[in-house]
């Protein structure tokens, strides 16, 4: 989840509830079914404005904070569907898609086929995650989207992989 407007609605809700970071963290512990809650440091990262402030947090953290502030999650956070950060390499591109108020950026994807290590870096996933996805697809009788075998090595078409992941995400959410 990504905080809205650099956390301004979140900070306003904290102030309106008469809480501070440590008390909000304690409140999340009370509301968490596991009893763990969120640490004051993590809440501070999410609600903060300084260098250590984070735009993104887990869905669990967003839900606990919203519940502790008696707010809807959508009033404080937006769902992030896919974020791949921009590399300093001129061969890599940035694609950022999210729901809510964030604008969609249609940046160009790599034109060449990627090896598994490059795809893992591009998707910000592990190589074992990719192996698991390929195995799961094979067991279901499908070919993983964008997978090409060149000799004995695997190559991936980033366009087809992202399209397949989007389709998979829409099937799961439907």
Features:
single chain, 174 residues, alpha+beta, two-stranded antiparallel sheet
Describe this structure in words.
The chain is of the alpha+beta class. It is 45% helix and 12% strand. It has 8 helices and 6 strands. A two-stranded antiparallel ribbon has the order 1-2. The chain has a two-stranded antiparallel sheet with strand order 3-4. Helix 2 (21-31) crosses helix 3 (40-47) and helix 2 packs across helix 4 (59-68). The relative contact order is 0.11. Mean pLDDT is 82; it is low at 92-107.
Average pLDDT = 82
Strand order in the sheet with the most strands: 1-2
Helical fraction: 40-55%
Tell me the overall shape.
elongated
The helix tally amounts to: 8
Structural class: alpha+beta
Radius of gyration using CA atoms only = 20 Å
The termini sit apart by 20 Å
How many strands, what sense, and barrel or not for the largest sheet?
A: 2 strands, antiparallel
Order of helices and strands: EHHHHHEEEHHEEH
Total beta strands = 6
Residue fraction in strands: 5-15%
Poorly predicted parts: 92-107
């Amino acid at each position: 989840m990504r905080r809205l407007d650099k956390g301004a609605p979140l900070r306003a809700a904290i102030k309106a509830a008469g809480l501070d970071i440590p008390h909000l963290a304690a409140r999340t512990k009370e509301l968490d079914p596991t009893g763990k809650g969120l640490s004051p440091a993590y809440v501070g990262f999410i609600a903060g404005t300084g260098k250590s402030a984070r735009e993104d947090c887990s869905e669990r953290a967003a839900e606990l904070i919203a519940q502790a502030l008696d707010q809807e999650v959508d009033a404080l956070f937006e769902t992030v569907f896919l974020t791949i950060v921009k590399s300093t390499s001129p061969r890599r591109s940035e694609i950022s898609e999210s729901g809510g108020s964030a604008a969609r950026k249609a940046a160009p994807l790599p034109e060449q086929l990627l090896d598994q290590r490059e795809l893992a870096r591009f998707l910000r996933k592990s190589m074992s995650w990719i192996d698991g996805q390929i195995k799961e697809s094979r067991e279901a009788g499908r070919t993983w989207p964008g997978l090409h075998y060149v000799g004995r090595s695997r190559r991936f078409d980033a366009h087809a992989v992202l399209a397949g992941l989007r389709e998979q995400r829409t099937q799961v959410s439907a």
